[in-house]
């Protein structure tokens, strides 16, 4: 049986309902970039979520450049990354809310002191910190236990690259076998699975039972070990993972 001592939480739409707010800001900048490139296509925030959920803005811009076959000068890209970060943070500080049930479970797991807790996100560090502070979750994580693929790494990247998970494991001096990740997106789940971490796929932030079922199937296909539809299921999901034989770490299941 795995001896779990560490939990890595994704932030956006796992702990904090932030994706819709963030993608509103991203769409404005993506459309500005497309316009300057003479490309007529335009995105809404909802369309960006559909195509790029789980990626940070840098990852989205890389995908856009590949899709439309253009290249932004590096200085221009960095300027847009900074502008996006400021726009998103302003929206989050005004409107962000916790995922339903997340705060209730965080306080329980924090007070039990059975696990060490960290946040592992693709988003910029300032954005993650603003999100968890707005919804009163920052008290559950030490200042140096918030990891960002956009800010913490020497070379910025985005999930599904597992680099940020591998970095976080090294920083907290834990192995993948001792760790559980909670992820809501395909890119995030794939990053955790690629890092060899036991993974809970959270689908509670998706609107409607049909979409939740679709995402559950997709996440299971990527290798998550169990699906969590509501944060009230978190404790039973952890118990399930802790009951698995280590040799079955590649298997997945669903409540």
Automatic annotation (TrEMBL):
Domain of life per record: Eukaryota
Keywords assigned by UniProt, alphabetized: Hydrolase
Hydrolase listed as a keyword: yes
Protein name per UniProt: HAD superfamily hydrolase
Record-level Gene Ontology MF annotations: phosphatase activity
InterPro entries linked: CbbY-like, HAD-like_sf, HAD-SF_hydro_IA, HAD_2, HAD_sf, PGP-like_dom2
């Amino acid at each position: 049986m795995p001896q779990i001592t560490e939990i890595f939480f994704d932030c956006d739409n796992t702990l904090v309902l932030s994706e819709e707010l963030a993608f509103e800001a991203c769409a404005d900048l993506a459309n500005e970039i497309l316009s300057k490139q003479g490309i007529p296509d335009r995105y809404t925030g909802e369309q960006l979520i559909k195509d790029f959920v789980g990626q940070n803005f840098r990852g989205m811009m890389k995908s856009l450049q590949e899709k439309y076959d253009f290249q932004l000068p590096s200085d221009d890209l960095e300027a847009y990354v900074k502008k996006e970060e400021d726009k998103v943070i302003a929206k989050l500080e005004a409107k962000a809310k916790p995922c339903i049930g997340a705060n209730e479970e965080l306080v329980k797991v924090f007070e039990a002191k059975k696990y060490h807790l960290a946040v592992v996100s693709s988003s910029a560090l300032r954005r993650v910190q603003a999100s968890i502070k707005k919804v009163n979750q920052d008290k559950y994580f030490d200042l140096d236990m918030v990891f960002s693929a956009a800010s913490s790494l020497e070379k910025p990247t985005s999930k599904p690259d597992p680099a940020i998970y591998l970095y976080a494991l090294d920083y907290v001096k834990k192995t993948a076998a001792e760790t559980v990740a909670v992820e809501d997106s395909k890119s995030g789940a794939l990053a955790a699975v690629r890092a060899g971490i036991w993974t809970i796929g959270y689908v509670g932030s998706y609107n409607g039972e049909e979409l939740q079922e679709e995402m559950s199937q997709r996440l299971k296909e990527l290798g998550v070990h169990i699906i969590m539809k509501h944060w009230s299921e978190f404790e039973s999901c952890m118990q399930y993972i802790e009951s698995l034989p280590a040799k079955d770490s590649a298997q997945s299941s669903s409540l």
